[in-house]
Design brief:
It is a single chain. A four-stranded antiparallel beta sheet has the order 1-2-3-4, with helices on one face. The chain is an alpha+beta fold. The chain has one domain: Outer membrane efflux proteins (OEP) (Up-down Bundle), CATH 1.20.1600.10. The protein has eleven helices and four strands, in the order αααββαααααββααα. The longest helix is centred in the middle third of the chain and has 67 residues, at 151-217.
Length: 490
Amino acid sequence: MRPLLPAALAASLLACNPFHTARKADDIRPTALPDAWQQPVGAAAAPDRWWTSFGDPALDGVIETLLADNLDLAQAWSRLAQSRAVAAQQGAARLPTANVSAGAGASRRYVATPQATGDPANPIATVTEGDTFENYSLSAAAQYEVDLWDRIGAGHRAARLDVQASALDVQALAISLTASAADLWFALVESRSTEALLESQIETNTTLLELARFRFGEGLASAADVLQQEQLLLSTRRQLPAVQGRRATLEHQLAVLLGQPPSAGAALGGASVEVPDPPALPAAGVPADLLTRRPDIHAAQLRVAAADERVGAAIAGRLPNITLSASIGFEAQSFGDLIDRWVWSLAGNLLAPIFDGGRRAAEVERNRAAVEGALAAFTQTTLRAFAEVEDALVLEARQAETLDRLQAELDVSRRLYEQARARYMEGLTDYLPVLSALQGVQRNEVSLLSARRQRIAYRIQLHRALGGAWTTELRPPVAARATDSEGDRR
């Protein structure tokens, strides 16, 4: 019996499943990969931490705070720690289990003895105290399942693949959150810039209203001219509270994104009032590069591989398994004799399922269906990633055209306003052409500002879609940092 356990351990190490071979994550590829992007891409590579290309140190600080304090990211780190613990549990099943037990007890026996009396029908029973018995025990037991068909090993590998996928989920979330923070940042810049623009327009409209009133007093303008200009001033003032409200809500959103109360948003949003031009269009590589740059794609690959490992575990669950057990113990009626009286046992059990109503077969089919679902999710994730890059490229290209046309329209509207005003001041026309041209100028100024910010948003969308390698440097916050468990390292 002595060589039984080493032989079983060797058999477990050499375990394999002759009925299933799980595919590796790197072998899982999209059915079709485009050779190139449909839209033109840049030639220069952007910095890996792409937000630094905007040259705004305040934005850089916001991103660093986000990566340290965002609560969604903290939850993702927590899920990763949980998956590591699950993998450690799965790995522990590959090792023997051992238990030690100790016990002590005492018992005393009492004996009732009948005593003769003068009345034979009513004897008297007396209770006498018997002997006291003591019992002491000390034992150790071990049990080990021989993983003949790699059922436990496949489950452990699946759990470790889940850990890797969870780590990639953290990276994918970080990419999404940094893009959201940058988008909020430039939306705040736009709101402050719009507020400043409206205040400038209010000042211009106030000056023109004073001029209209003066000309009306001099008999050079009609009351309608004054009322029309006053209406434009009121209309411009009406837009200001909505813009200020949007700025405040954006500050609140940014604060919550950084894990802080909404009241901290005003101090976090910076003071810039100029929407910048985006840096040069970055190089996007080829579509196949996304397979290594996008952590969500790699996570989907790993989940297919994990599901395939679980198919092997389910198939192995239908095959016989061997369990070895061993125990040694000591038992005596006095503590001094405990070590002198010992017993041991070794046993091996073979369990072969014969009939289970189809439960194990159904589990195999369930896991095979899970593989198909994971493959579909991987394909969908890949296609969506390609589409996100294509969308961002085409939207930015069209937005650049829109900006050029808006700028041309603004230039024309300004020239029209100057001519209309000159003709009005010469008394050649009434005030309506001036008012109409001025409304066009102010409307185009707001539209151009909004369009510039939208182009920044499309650039951020492109960086989000392209992914990056910078997420591999992410580490959990110090308070939540934990090293990989021993079971995860095996």
